[in-house]
């Protein structure tokens, strides 16, 4: 029996990577590609600030093609919706009926994704939904996932967290009220190793810069 085809909404970070791993283990869907939004002006993954060269290395380590949705830095909500709808239409034409997300508990985001995908005759899948964040974060770390904080919101945690490894030490140092998985936007990550990869991706850390009120750590592949 053929499994329904799906793509993974791939942010380059830990939640999407672990959701992919969880869905792969369950085996319910044939996952055919990684779908990523890229801010074309900066040639980086939107919000995470990850270089597209590192994004490509992730896709190679997963072993799936990458579907990019390019948006401008000043992208409006309507423009974002139009470009995602076009991407969904193309994917549906290839037989894809589901998009897998790494969301944990934000109902508004879940409702938005469900409504938008319904317009394309598709449906979302949430493998991590309602998982307790601290238990989930510990499961990721214990399961071999390695990630680095690439974007920090200084209104939630100190800017010094940018560039730190996502590990047990970081979880212990997060301030009270900060979601251990950064679900409320406190921080974003880039995954460099884990059971979803064929092998670890060698990286080196660059400068930390402030842009648009956020602090971004520049994580690069060793050849960049």
How would you sum up this structure, described in words?
- The protein is of the alpha/beta class and 224 residues long.
- The protein folds into two domains: 121 residues, HUPs (Rossmann fold), CATH 3.40.50; 87 residues, no CATH class.
- The protein is built from six helices and ten strands; from the N terminus they run βαββαβαβαβαβαβββ.
- Strands 1, 2, 3, 4, 5 and 6 form a six-stranded mixed sheet that branches. Strands 8-7-10-9 form a four-stranded antiparallel sheet, covered by helices on one side.
- A hairpin with a 4-residue loop joins strand 2 and strand 3.
- The chain starts with a strand and ends with a strand.
- 39% of the residues are buried.
- The model has no long low-confidence stretch (mean pLDDT 96).
Summarize this structure as a short list of keywords or feature phrases:
alpha/beta, Rossmann fold, 6-stranded mixed sheet, 4-stranded antiparallel sheet, 6 helices, 10 strands
């Amino acid at each position: 029996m053929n499994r329904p085809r799906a793509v993974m909404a791939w942010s380059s970070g830990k939640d999407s990577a672990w959701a992919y791993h969880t869905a792969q283990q369950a085996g319910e869907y044939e996952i055919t590609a990684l779908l990523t939004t890229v801010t074309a002006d900066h040639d980086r993954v939107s919000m995470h600030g990850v270089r597209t060269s590192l994004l490509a290395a992730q896709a190679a380590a997963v072993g799936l093609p990458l579907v990019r949705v390019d948006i401008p830095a000043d992208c409006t909500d309507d423009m974002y919706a139009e470009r995602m709808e076009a991407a969904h239409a193309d994917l549906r034409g290839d037989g894809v009926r589901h998009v897998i997300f790494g969301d944990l508990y934000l109902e508004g985001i879940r409702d938005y994704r469900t409504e938008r995908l319904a317009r394309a005759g598709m449906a979302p899948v949430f493998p991590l939904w309602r998982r307790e964040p601290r238990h989930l974060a510990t499961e990721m770390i214990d399961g071999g996932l390695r990630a680095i904080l690439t974007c920090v919101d200084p209104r939630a945690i100190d800017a010094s967290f940018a560039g730190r490894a996502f590990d047990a030490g970081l979880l212990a140092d997060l301030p009270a009220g900060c979601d251990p998985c950064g679900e409320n936007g406190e921080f974003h990550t880039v995954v460099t190793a884990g059971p979803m990869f064929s092998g670890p991706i060698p990286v080196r850390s660059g400068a930390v810069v402030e842009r648009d009120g956020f602090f971004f750590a520049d994580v690069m592949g060793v050849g960049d």
